[in-house]
Model the fold of this input.
Amino acid sequence: MTESGRALERTATFGPDDWWRRGVVYQIYPRSFSDADGDGIGDLPGIIDRLDHLGPTGLGVDAIWLSPIYPSPGKDGGYDVSDHTRVDPRFGSEADFDRLVDEAHRRGIRVILDLVMNHTSDEHPWFVASRTGRTGRHAGDYLWADPAGQDADGRPRAPNNWVSWFGGPAWTYEPRRGQFYHHTFLAEQPEIDWRVPAVEAAQFEMVRGWLDRGVDGLRLDTFNVFLKHPDLPSNPTRAGRTPWDRQVHLYDRDQPDFPALIERFRAILDAEPGRMSVGELFDGTVETAAGLTSGSHLVFDWTLIEAAWNASAVRSAIEAREEAFGEGRWPTAVLSNHDRRRQASRLADSAGAADAEAVARAAATLLLTVRGTPFLYYGEELGMRDVDIAPEESVDPPAFRFTSGSHWWDRSRCRTPMPWSPGPGSGFTGGRPWLRLGPDAGERNVEVQLTDPRSILSTYRRLLALRATTPALQIGSLRLHPDSVGDLVAYTREVPGQRILVLLNLGRVNSRWQLSGIPGEPAWRLLFDTDTTAPRDAVIAGGATLILGPDEAIILEAIP
Ligand code: TEU
Done:
């Protein structure tokens, strides 16, 4: 860590060590956030320029997570890394990175890096060395296996039946070694062999390098896949829609010795207090996510992001999360990321004829009040939508690899540039943006929304400010209210001395809620309402009936 970073940490710019539980994380896809040098591609100086939007005078988030910033041939949007220890010069210099960490810290914002440690790019020097022969320092760094004999045409047969998530086989033959290498994703993303002690040591050295530069947390890309069964057995098969789904993934992920690997990794982070990590659960259940969560190592589960926008789906998602994580483990909350449709598009579509703006506001309320650390995806605070990108403009090569029935869609649509202001380039760039901006960027941008108290941005800012001063919303227990029926989702968040009630109407018509049934609470204070057109009373008597409009959300606090 740089001296200024250390000094700031000592002067208590930062809160308590459990910021990862209390705080909010903001995900930046660096190419699309802000372009300082006018080449049309977002960069680190651009992020520095925008820190005030994120810091205490803006949204007030506690940390930023940067999607990969390392050199990459770009076969998978930066998730194919050719050097994990450096910054891609397209994003800036090494000094720019150190300045970003300092400038973020100065505002009390922590920095989380996205580490892709399951695979490298096929242009990574380790793989370039590894694929040419079976001897040499990197020969064993990747998951190589001998052919399982030959097929009828004399071609080498893959070692087992494993398939790639992006479609096609998970094995590619390398004639120079006479062996196959494994890839859960693209053939250009060869899988590292974590069972080789020297490989683990090299990965951990890289981790230490970033921590020494002041990084406060790490996101582990597709982490539960790091280890495979050492004997590489074929997976059992079953009925399913896609080749991936037609296998029971017993042997190519979630191995029993994986939690021990995470413990060794955590020991490095735990050398200093307050460092968090979050594992990206790849294709797994909420129970798997909870099982791999421990202390300040969080795990993304996909229950909320996969729930349709209706009360029963959201209630079930909340119930499933609470049951799986229990009191002892801390969940995350995610409604959008760089792989999925944006919240504002997906949820309104799933609800049918809904007011997408109202849905986005209510979804913001859910994200920031449900139990768990919220992860906001850049532009979510503006209600940014998925953008139609013509195939010839797509910047997501895997979108074109898959055969019919693949899981993947064109992720270009959720990775479009952030609109900051009206006018050409929308404040994102002075040049030609690397990917088209949304058609609504002229109105849906930070500058315009800041002047409108009803905007989605204003809604997020109000919610974030409330969350920052409301312990029950940060760390409280969650209980679904027994009267949470019909279109209403109702839950309480509670710490000793504070009880908060969150009410969400996920229907297209009004819903009624009677404030009764909780003895000993004479009245409620209104803390927040998504609908600011018809202000409610600041204090609402116990027993009163509230009417919530379509996709309206309110937050109340019991007056003791
Ligand atoms: O994604 C892994 C991945 O496939 C999922 O997150 C998936 O959406 C989820 O498991 C569905 O159940 C990560 C990165 O986020 C993605 O951008 C990369 O393409 C991929 O790894 C390969 O590095």
